[in-house]
Amino acid sequence: MGLAVVRDLRELRAPASAEELAEFETDVLAGFVLARAAAGLV
Question: Is the overall model pTM greater than 0.70, yes or no?
Fold first, then answer.
């Protein structure tokens, strides 16, 4: 098993704007709906 060095990228990004958060929420919800449809759970 190998080890990897991981850096926290949050410190390099500016805080998300309200618009970016809304777009992210929409993308997550769309992915959830597509996953349910693909699984036949409509």
Answer: no
